[in-house]
Every structure is written in structure tokens, then in C-alpha cells.
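> Could you send the Nickel-dependent lactate racemase prediction when you get a chance?

Sure thing. Input:
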Amino acid sequence: MKEISFPYGKTKMTYAFDENELAGVLVSSIHDYVPEKGEVELVKDALANPVGSKKLCELAVGKKNVVIIASDHTRPVPSKVIMPAMLDEIRKGSPDADITILIATGCHRGTTKDELISKFGEEIVKNEKIYIHDCLETDKLVNIGTLPSGGACEINSIAYNADLLVAEGFIEPHFFAGFSGGRKSVLPGIASRTTVMANHCSEFIADKNARTGILENNPIHKDMLWAAKTARLAFIVNVVLDADKKVIYAVAGDSEQAHKKGTDFLSKLCGAKAVDADIAISTNGGYPLDQNVYQAVKGMTAAEATVKDGGVIIMLASSSDGTGGDNFYHQLADEEDIKKTTALFLSRGRNETAPDQWQSQILLRILSRASVIYISEMPDNMVKKMHMIPSHSLDGAMKKAREILGKTDIKIAAIPDGVSVIVEK
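Output:
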């Protein structure tokens, strides 16, 4: 027998597998990577050796209006490590520069002052000019052209009017943009809701290249890259984090070339070969990423990439905060026939996307291939309304999975952290 632990909320669930049934344990080796230097040194080294670009201090020479796009409260970017180094570099080249830190909220709510202090520290919040992007603040948005997708590209005018536009961020696998970081600071980071909806359209979500770890021929990435280049995003500082949210790698420079170097590094650590599995067990890595069903869809996509058609996915996500949104819940719960809902989404044009539609579409895609047993704290009736099978333990979920399959000869894939791994066919 082989005992494996799966993160669940702030705890873990453990299951003893028959090794004859265990087809593979799909894990990222990122947790084993030991950097040669500390966090601050890694960031400073990256700034001193930019990829495809002059140094940030050199780019800043003669620039009066400088904007730094920074992530918001929903992302674990270690801004206390990155931002001071970026500010120093800019002021080294342009001591009198008027610098604005623009918080890239995308379509999220605004970041609070307490969240800003937690993110940047009191000194930066007190002494630097900070503006929080609002995707619905029309008088602060400017149309900079038409995306390759055909949608209008509207971004925050503070960024577009900058003499020098730069960004901080972090790189992790992303379940339809391929990877986070780089160009995502602009789209969706500082874009209008209209632009985000066009980019997240059903046609693109359905594209076979809009998947974890894929950038080439990914239409969502193509839109994002176009937006970043058109917005004149000149320089980025991106990091890769370990399970404790500590910097283990940093890269700086050109928004496309530096980002590519970072994704290449991450791919080597996160890649795991798919196995043929009748049952695939996944998680969202526990708290804080498994607090609702909406976020848990990300971890399910790792299982989707390795489970057989007609198989069973067991997803562990405590979901202590519930579904993750009324739009998301009702798109799933109000129609019993998942094929009808999928067809409705696919019938909508690129500029007709409904909020949260992309997340519902991906969950429906998963459900069309496999049964999903959902281990959570959610009420059973809500899980059932979302077309999944409720459970509250791994033992109970495994029993249900065996009943669904109706056979004794089964193979199981275990994915202890579905959001940190890139499952490769």
C-alpha cells in the first residue's frame, strides 16, 4: 500500500492506495527546488541582467511619468521584495520621476488600504502614489485598438499616458492563458470589463490550445500579448514562487522575452506526464485556493488532462466560502442539461460573453468527459445542482467512484496539488 496526503482547506486528507492500482502520482518538483540566493538578491540579480532589454535604470533616463503595474490582493506576488528594487532602479535613472503604482485589479473588487499595506508595507503605501484600477471607470479608460479576437482593447489611461510603463508579477501555470505573469498585467490587469469579456469568449475557451502550460497558438495569450505591446509595456519583473510563496527564481526585461524565459524555467519544474487513469484525484493545493467551487475548477483541469473518457474525477476543495459567485452557480444550476448550457455559451459571439461564463464552460467541458465527485463542506444539494456528486471523505468518494465505474480492474492517478502541475499528454 502507498499512503498519499492531499491538501484540504487548512488540513489534509490521506488515503492508502493499492500500488497495483496506482498508475501514477503527478507532482511538480518546484517544491524541491532550492535557490542559490535569497529573495532580494534574486530580484536584484534579475534587474542587473535583463532579458532582451536595457536595464530599468537606463530605460528610466529622461522619463518623467512612470507607471508600475502591480498585482492586487488576489495574487501572492511578494511586492515587498520586488517593488522597492524597482523604485530604486527607476529613481537611479530618473531621480525626479513622477511614479504611479497602478493596481491591476482586472474585474476584481478594489484593493483596500489594509490589503495594500499587507502587500507593500506601510512605507510604500504612505509615500508612493497608488491608483486602483476599476474596469468600469469609463472616464479612466482609453481605446487603444482592436484585439486580434475582434474585441475592443480598452485599458486604463494612466498606463497608456505613461512615458515608461513597467510591471511586476509572478508566473504560475494558468488553466486557459497557459501561464500567468508578463502580458497579463495589462490584459486583464488594467483592462475594461468589455475587453476582458471579449478575451474570455467561449470560442477561445473552447480552443484546444487554451490550456495549462500552452502559449503557442493560444488565442487568449495572443490577445494578451497584443494588448501589452500596444500599451507599450516596456519592462517586467516576474518571479516564481514555492509553496510558501517565497521567491525561488526571478526574471526581468522585455515583456515577452523575459516572460518566456520564466515560463521555460517553470515548465521544467511543473511538467508531469499524463497516465491513463480511470480515476483521477486532484486538489487546489488547500487553503487559500480551495475556498470555493469557482477556484476549484483550476485543479480539476489537471485531472481532466489524465482521466479517461467516462472516468471519474475526485476533487478535494473545502469550499468554505461556497460556490464563488452567483453568476457561476446559476449558469450551472438553472439548467439540468449541460449540453444545452454549453451550446448557449458557444452561440454567443466574442463580444457577448457573460461574467464568469468561461469558468462554467470549463467545468461543463470537464463534466462532459467524466463524472466529478466533489469533496467539500458544501451542502449536498448545492453540489448536486452543479452537476457533481457530493462527498465529505476520500474513503466515501473512492467507494462512489468504484460504483460508478462498475469494474474491479481500475487505474488511479493521484495529483496532490492540481494547480502547481502541468499535466502533459
